[in-house]
Design brief:
Blueprint: E1 2-3, E2 6-7, H1 9-29, H2 32-37, E3 42-44, E4 51-53, H3 54-76, E5 90-94, E6 100-104, E7 112-120, E8 126-128, E9 132-133, E10 142-147, E11 152-157, H4 169-182, E12 187-194, E13 197-204, E14 214-218, E15 228-230, E16 235-241, E17 244-250, E18 254-257, E19 262-266, E20 270-278, H5 280-303, H6 309-319, H7 325-330, E21 333-335, E22 341-343, H8 345-354, H9 356-364, H10 369-381, H11 385-388, H12 390-402, H13 404-414, H14 421-432
Antiparallel strand pairs: 1-2, 3-4, 5-20, 6-19, 7-16, 7-20, 8-13, 8-15, 9-13, 10-11, 10-14, 12-13, 16-17, 18-19, 21-22
Helix pairs in contact: 1-14, 3-5, 3-10, 5-6, 5-8, 8-9
């Protein structure tokens, strides 16, 4: 027997099997169930019944890794061992800026507190001449010296202009001040005018008892400038730290503490506390970031828990929480009904001010909230990737087996004899009926 060039019994057998395959394909192309089953790279989840693609599975693994990394980074910013984090980036402050201000000169490494008691500020010597009417004509020349043994300047001012006319007192004082300021003495000069009256003010460039000066010679319109109005003085203050008080004296109001790491400027007599500590605002912001990262990770896991056993395990790990209700309350954190967290900055700031040691210990101490969050993120990041989508993989494998075209394809690759005519017809009837 010969059909279409196929001679022999086996040729006819193969022909009939091929025709049955072709007819089945035509029938299935009009069947709605078939069209759903052969959607490219898609599967029906055995757990939720929602459609997911293999591309989606890979995207989830990437998002999962990013989410766990964000959780670890947010937690690490609050760990006490992280010198560059919110708990390691110390700032200095003063309790009373009218007494003293504090600035960080070099990186401050240790939390500390110093009480400063200012008894006297350092001051520079000030001399002020007697007031003269600014518009009146000068009665005599000026020829005097200002300074000390180390540096001085000689002031010479004629009472007459180049045309022979008389200068005013204001002109004389201004020229004297200009000569002093151009000189190399340790004195700076200025002309003070009020209600038509002028005077020459001389002030030492540096404060402290060692930086005095004298005025000698013919003063003219600057008569009285040799009298001291304000004596040069050293600053006097005490510092108490660790229960020990030490007395200090300096020629300046600009001081250094903590091995020059902290700069302090004395502003007035009184008491103030200089602190090197964490910035509550920065820490509060970091806690807010941690809560946000935790909630984001929790949502991602909850929305995809059926993808794999690893996701389910990490979800259970996360919902166990970051600490006791009392500990979280100290940080201004409460747990919502859906296991997400809510952060109240005002409560946190209040507790940081009221009991900073306890608050920082709960947050960043060994086994604290930051450590717990970091370890949970690390555990999630170390999860085997295959366990994150083993549910997806199982669903995809089940789809391949149950898809009739895949079944026919497998038989075709095995050869025409792998599926006889009766098997082909049986599969077609099983699917369509």
């Amino acid at each position: 027997m010969a059909i279409n060039g196929l001679n022999s019994y086996m040729g006819y057998y193969n022909y009939q099997a091929s025709m049955n395959n072709f007819r089945l394909t035509q029938a299935l192309s009009n069947n709605q169930r078939f069209m759903q089953a052969v959607t490219p790279v898609s599967r029906v989840s055995s757990n939720s019944g929602r459609s997911t693609s293999l591309t989606s599975s890979m995207a989830f693994v990437k998002n999962y890794s990013s989410s766990m990394t964000d959780l670890m980074n947010s937690a690490n910013a609050l760990k006490s061992s992280n010198q560059k984090g919110a708990m390691g980036d110390l700032v200095v402050s003063s309790s009373d800026s009218k007494v003293a201000t504090a600035t960080e000169k070099l990186t401050v490494r240790n939390i500390q507190s110093m009480d400063i008691d200012v008894q006297q500020l350092a001051s520079a010597q000030v001399n002020v001449s007697e007031g003269v009417k600014a518009s009146e004509k000068a009665s005599s020349d000026m020829n005097f010296t200002v300074g000390n043994a180390a540096s001085s300047v000689n002031v010479q001012v004629s009472a007459l202009n180049s045309d022979g006319s008389s200068k005013t007192n204001a002109q004389m004082l201004k020229e004297a001040a200009d000569q002093i300021n151009r000189g190399s003495s340790n004195v700076k000069a200025s002309v003070v005018q009020k209600d038509g009256v002028s005077s020459l003010q001389l002030e030492g460039r540096y404060s402290g008892e060692a930086n005095t000066f004298s005025v000698n010679g013919q003063l003219g319109a600057a008569a009285g400038a040799d009298a001291v109005k304000t004596e040069a003085a050293n600053s006097k203050y005490s510092v108490t730290t660790g229960g020990k008080t030490t007395q200090h004296e300096s020629y300046s109001n600009d001081l250094y503490m903590d091995s020059t790491r902290i700069g302090v400027e004395l502003k007035g007599v009184g008491k103030a506390t200089i602190k090197a500590d964490v910035d509550p605002e920065k820490v509060a912001s970091a806690v807010g970031d941690l809560v946000s990262s935790y909630n984001s990770s929790l949502k991602l896991l909850n929305d995809n828990y059926d993808r794999g056993t690893g996701v389910d395990r990490q979800l259970r790990n996360l919902v166990q929480g970051l600490g006791s209700e009392q500990s979280l309350k100290q940080l201004g954190i409460t747990v919502n009904k859906d296991a997400t967290l809510k952060f109240d900055k005002d409560t946190f700031m209040k507790n940081m001010d009221k009991n900073p040691s306890l608050t920082k210990s709960i947050l960043s101490g060994p086994g604290g909230i930051a450590d717990r969050a970091f370890n949970k993120g690390s555990a999630g990041l170390n999860m085997r990737s295959s366990t994150l989508i083993d549910g997806d993989l199982a669903g995809a494998q089940n789809e391949y087996i149950t898809n009739p075209l895949n079944a026919f394809g497998s038989y075709s690759r095995s050869g025409a004899y792998a599926m006889n005519n009766y098997a082909a017809v049986g599969m077609m009837l099983n699917y369509l009926v």
